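Tip: read the tokens left to right.
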């Protein structure tokens, strides 16, 4: 349902945005970057690669952590099939560059993370981190484009290069004994802050905002499961916290794809 303002006849998404609101996301982004700079190096936890999953299926080691990545591929394929036909529509054109990068990153995450978990170690971790970084970059560009961004292609290229550089920076610093995750983590923090802000400022459809809110809540829950990898495995016995992380994160990405397809590949109504 559209919200109309009697004074100007504009829908909620079309009403002019106040100038100070337009610059708020940029100010917050600068503030987060400054906080990371002041904080100093953020290292990978010392025993990060010591996962609790020791299951084996048909000769696949760490089968829970490996096979639980399949969901990312399924969600990526679903999103691509649903959104591809609408890539040139007036409403979706500006957002497609970002969501295309998001879906590609999501598909690559399924393979990169599975490869990493077959034999966990920093040597393989790059192939897990890079797709995740690309997906985060794509999500930022996609949401911004959906709210009226006009330079989506340039932003997708720029943030895609930043995503690759953030992983390259970690590899470089890690090999010199002082791994630094700050540029990489920035791509995980910014979506949690900027996406709800952009959607609020530009009055995104309610169903889309709810879908993204659910996704963010699930993402936080997934990170909690990751931290509690061993305690969850010891308590439940049949599944580890990291395996649950993959499953919950898959649900989060499914919520995002559902929200986007509801808006751009549905019946065209705003709710």
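Filled-in amino acids:
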């Amino acid at each position: 349902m559209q919200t109309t303002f009697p004074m100007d006849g504009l829908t909620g998404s079309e009403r002019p945005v106040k100038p100070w609101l337009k610059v708020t996301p940029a100010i917050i982004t600068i503030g987060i970057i400054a906080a990371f700079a002041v904080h100093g190096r953020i290292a990978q936890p010392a025993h990060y690669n010591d996962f609790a999953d020791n299951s084996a299926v048909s000769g696949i080691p760490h089968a829970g952590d490996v096979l639980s990545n399949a969901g990312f591929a399924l969600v990526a394929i679903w999103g691509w099939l649903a959104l591809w036909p609408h890539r040139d529509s007036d409403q979706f054109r500006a957002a497609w560059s970002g969501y295309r990068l998001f879906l590609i990153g999501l598909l690559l995450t399924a393979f990169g993370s599975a490869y990493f978990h077959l034999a966990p170690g920093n040597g393989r971790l790059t192939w897990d981190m890079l797709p995740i970084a690309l997906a985060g970059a794509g999500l930022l560009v996609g949401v911004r484009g959906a709210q009226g961004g006009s330079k989506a292609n340039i932003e997708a290229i720029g943030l895609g290069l930043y995503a690759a550089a953030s992983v390259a920076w970690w590899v470089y610093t890690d090999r010199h004994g002082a791994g630094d995750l700050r540029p990489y983590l920035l791509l995980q923090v910014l979506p949690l802050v900027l996406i709800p802000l952009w959607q609020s400022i530009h009055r995104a459809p309610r169903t889309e905002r709810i879908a993204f809110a659910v996704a963010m809540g699930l993402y936080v829950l997934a990170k909690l499961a990751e931290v509690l990898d061993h305690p969850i495995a010891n308590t439940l016995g049949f599944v580890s916290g990291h395996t649950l992380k993959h499953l919950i994160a898959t649900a989060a990405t499914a919520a995002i794809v559902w929200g986007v397809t509801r808006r751009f590949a549905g019946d065209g109504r705003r709710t």
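Residues 28 and 34 are 10 Å apart (CA to CA). Strands lie at 4-5, 10-11, 56-57, 60-61.
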